[in-house]
Design goal:
Shape: globular
CATH class: Alpha Beta
Mean pLDDT: 98
Number of domains: 1
Radius of gyration: 16 Å
Structural class: alpha/beta
Bound molecules: adenosine monophosphate
CATH architecture: 3-Layer(aba) Sandwich
Strand order of the largest sheet: 4-3-2-1-5-6-7
CATH topology: Rossmann fold
Length: about 190
C-alpha cells in the first residue's frame, strides 16, 4: 500500500505553466489514490500549487517547515497539518520519516539538495524507499547525464541506477513506485565502488 509520499519541488512562482500543471496533476493522482502528501509546507511555487490542489481534491497534506521560514510567513495556511521544526536538517529528516516513496518534481537548488541527500542515504542503505523523478519536458535530462558520467567514470556503480526511476507523466507515478526495485540496508555492501 502506498499511503504517504514525500514530494520535493520548486518554491519559485515564476516558472512556466507546464511545471504548475505537473504539480496539479501530481496532487490529483495522490488524491485519487488516497495518498497523503508530505512536503516542505510552502505556500508558493510548485509547493503551494501541489498543496492547494491536493486540499481542493480532499487529499491530506502535511507540511514540515523550519521556524525561521514561519517567521517570514512562508507557511501554508490551509493544509491538514503544518509541523514546525528547528532547522533545515530536522526538516529533511522528518520529511522522509514513515513515507512509502519520494517523488521529485522540477525545482531549484533546494529540490536538488533534498533529492541528492535521499539518493546518498539510499546508496548507504539508510533510506530504502522508491525515488521517482517526474521529468517534465526533459527537465532532469542533464542530471541523468551527470549520473551516467559518474557511473562511466566509476564514481558510482551501475547497480546504483536502481535507486531512482523516472516518469514523464504524473499518471505513471503510482506504477513507478510499485515497480521500483527492492532496496535494503545491505546496500552498504555495494556503496563503495
Ligand atoms: P527550490 O527547489 O530551490 O525552490 O527549493 C525548494 C526548497 O526551498 C524548499 O524545500 C524550501 O527549503 C526552500 N524555500 C525557498 N523559498 C521558499 C518559500 N517561499 N516557501 C517555502 N520554502 C521555500
Amino acid at each position: 500500500m502506498i499511503n504517504r509520499v514525500c514530494v520535493f519541488c520548486a518554491s519559485s512562482q515564476k516558472v512556466a505553466p507546464k511545471y504548475f500543471n505537473v504539480a496539479e496533476s501530481v496532487a490529483k493522482v495522490f488524491a485519487d489514490n488516497n495518498i497523503t502528501t508530505i512536503y516542505g509546507g510552502g505556500a508558493v511555487g510548485l509547493m503551494g500549487r501541489l498543496a492547494d490542489v491536493a486540499m481542493r481534491n480532499h487529499g491530506e497534506v502535511i507540511g514540515i517547515m523550519p521556524s525561521f521560514m514561519m517567521d517570514v510567513e512562508w507557511g501554508h495556511k490551509n493544509i491538514t497539518e503544518l509541523i514546525i521544526v528547528k532547522d533545515m536538517h530536522e526538516r529533511k529528516k522528518k520529511l522522509i520519516e514513515n513515507i512509502d516513496a519520494v517523488v521529485v518534481l522540477p525545482g531549484g537548488s533546494g529540490t536538488l539538495e533534498e533529492v541528492m541527500e535521499v539518493i546518498t542515504l539510499k546508496r548507504l542503505g539508510k533510506f530504502v524507499k522508491p525515488i521517482v523523478f517526474v521529468n517534465t519536458d526533459g527537465y532532469y535530462n542533464s542530471l541523468f547525464d551527470l549520473f551516467d558520467k559518474m557511473i562511466e567514470e566509476k564514481f558510482m556503480r551501475n547497480e546504483h541506477r536502481a535507486m531512482w526511476s523516472c516518469v514523464d507523466n504524473p499518471c505513471n507515478i503510482v506504477e513507478a513506485i510499485k515497480l521500483a526495485p527492492q532496496w535494503n540496508d545491505s546496500a552498504i555492501k555495494i556503496a563503495a565502488v
